Amino acid sequence: MKIPTGWEQFFKEEKQKPYFEELMKFLKNEYETKTIYPPKENIFTVFNLVKPEDVKVVLLGQDPYHGYNQANGIAFSTNDSKTPRSLANMFKELNNDLGIEHPSNDLTGWVKQGVFLLNTILTVREHEPLSHKNKGWEIFVLDLLNFLEQTNHNVLFCAFGNNAYEMYSKITNINSQDILRFGHPSPFSYERYFKNTKPYSAINNWLIEHNENPIDWSK
């Protein structure tokens, strides 16, 4: 496994823990025997796009898209020209909030500005959502969130849905003022809990209050 540049300290610590060794063994077997997304070389894509000290916002999802050519290692983002429903709802609210039409389904531009788009579970079997739940990814992500909170004290944790909020609540010494909570953009909760919540302007307002440059959500 090639460690992403800038994340050496974090990965060095995780690789020494028993859960990580078990997780890597599990994934090796899964990729050899089943169709798993994202492709193995893309699991840590988001880490390769931004260094820990440049992370300004963590936006946590659940697990990757489980269809062909969808998951690309960046939560919510996809290389596919067909827009997944959750992402379509995110774009709908972006337009409602800031009047922005995002040009593509690729959210690399957000990550490069410091929006760390991360799933709670980083891999999934084809057409089997949550199939890699409780295999070790949740421990990895919680350790990562603690690492980011300690490394970069000026970071906002943005929760889309209850799963993300529950994960954030486990961060050691987390300040509740550093968490913004919204509903999930999935079709099941969009109308009731996500529509008209204006998360993008709320994130930018928080960043400005903390002397950080706001995100250009059009990129």
TrEMBL record:
It is an enzyme of class 3 (hydrolase). GO terms for molecular function: uracil DNA N-glycosylase activity. One of its GO terms (cellular component) is cytoplasm. Coiled coil: none annotated. It catalyses: Hydrolyzes single-stranded DNA or mismatched double-stranded DNA and polynucleotides, releasing free uracil. This is Uracil-DNA glycosylase. It comes from the Bacteria. The gene is ung. Its EC number is 3.2.2.27. Its main location: cytoplasm. GO terms for biological process: base-excision repair, AP site formation via deaminated base removal. Gene3D superfamilies: Uracil-DNA glycosylase-like domain. The keyword Hydrolase applies. Excises uracil residues from the DNA which can arise as a result of misincorporation of dUMP residues by DNA polymerase or due to deamination of cytosine. Keywords: Cytoplasm, DNA damage, DNA repair, Hydrolase. It is found in: Cytoplasm. The active site is at 63 (proton acceptor). Belongs to the uracil-DNA glycosylase (UDG) superfamily. UNG family.
